[in-house]
Amino acid sequence: MLVTEVNTPLLDEPGVELRSDITVELVDHSASDAGVVRAARVSTIGESAQLEDKGEGYSAGLINYLMKSRHGSPFEHNYLTFLITAPIFTVRHLMRHRTWSFNEESARYREIRPVFYVPDSDRLLRQEGKPGDYTYVAGAADDHEHVLTSAHSVYSKAYEEYSSMLEAGIAREIARMVLPVATYSSVYATCNSRALMHFLSLRTNRQDASYISHPQREIELVAEQMEAAWKELMPVTQAAFEAYGRVSP
Ligand SMILES: Cc1cc2nc3c(=O)[nH]c(=O)nc-3n(C[C@H](O)[C@H](O)[C@H](O)COP(=O)(O)OP(=O)(O)OC[C@H]3O[C@@H](n4cnc5c(N)ncnc54)[C@H](O)[C@@H]3O)c2cc1C
């Protein structure tokens, strides 16, 4: 488990743990480029699609054609399941994607651990521009320490009050209301590759995309890790996604 590396004595104090890492693990999948080809070919050759193998060149041509013509349903016959560990505000971004399936740890059924997110020293902390089109810039030298000090102060107090309510016998589902959205959570998230492409188109900032999105950096860290794992499983589909402007078919 990574703990943010910053030059501050706050992190040596017992009590709350401050983290800056956001992790994504591929835990299960049935995803392959060949599965896309089989699903597409059933429309013209029926049940023989299951046995057909016309080679890599043909598969790449067909997948590129599907992507270009936005024929999306052949990309739905697979699944990828990820385990994400991230602050609640990032999980909340993830859960806006309604074609995915989710299971998240419950603050009703387990006692929440005192683990909270803080941006690491590389995270740009100042925004300029207008809603929907912000750019992020480095600010004053003490910005990062300011954020850490404020965050640590609130997290410590919030967790202290949370713990005192639990000790007094108050239900976990009530006591949790004082915890901040920076509290770490863990979630299983399952999607198919079409839904993943839609997610990636919105949650990555790529200047070469047909539609440039401006996601918060923390959900982009989730998206980047998912895309890296997916690219290993479906390299031809991922390349076609890139080639056609990172638009979901
Ligand atoms: C940069 C950025 C800023 C954002 N800011 C805000 C914000 O300020 N406030 C806020 O509330 N949200 C915000 N969002 C969330 C955004 O509005 C979407 O909820 C989120 O991106 C999920 O997109 P989606 O609905 O296309 O995808 P999904 O929910 O994954 O759905 C996939 C697709 O299925 C179809 N679909 C799903 N459900 C329906 C439905 N009920 N009716 C019709 N078609 C449907 C649509 O074609 C949709 O594109 C932001 C998102 C981004 C990327």
Would you write up a description of this structure?
By secondary structure, the chain is of the alpha+beta class. The chain has a single domain (9-29, 79-234), classed as 2-Layer Sandwich (Gyrase A, domain 2), CATH 3.30.1360. Helix content is 40%, strand content 17%. It has helices at 33-45, 56-68, 88-94, 143-167, 172-175, 193-203, 217-233, 235-243; strands spanning 17-19, 23-29, 80-87, 101-104, 115-117, 126-130, 133-137, 184-191. The longest helix has 25 residues, at 143-167. It is elongated. The structure holds flavin-adenine dinucleotide (FAD). Flavin-adenine dinucleotide binds next to helix 6.
CATH class, named Alpha Beta
Beta-strand residue percentage: 15-25%
Reported for the largest beta sheet, the result is: 4 strands, antiparallel
Q: Which strand order spans the largest sheet, edge to edge or round the barrel? A: 2-3-8-4
The amount of helix comes to 25-40%
What is the helix tally?
A: 8
CATH architecture classification name: 2-Layer Sandwich
Domain tally: 1
The rough form would be described as: elongated
Based on secondary structure, the structural category is alpha+beta
Distinct compounds present: flavin-adenine dinucleotide
Please give the radius of gyration in angstroms. Answer: 22 Å
The overall pLDDT average reads 91
Please provide the count of β strands.
Answer: 8
Order of helices and strands: EEHHEHEEEEHHEHHH
Low-pLDDT regions: 1-13
Could you tell me the CATH topology label.
Answer: Gyrase A, domain 2
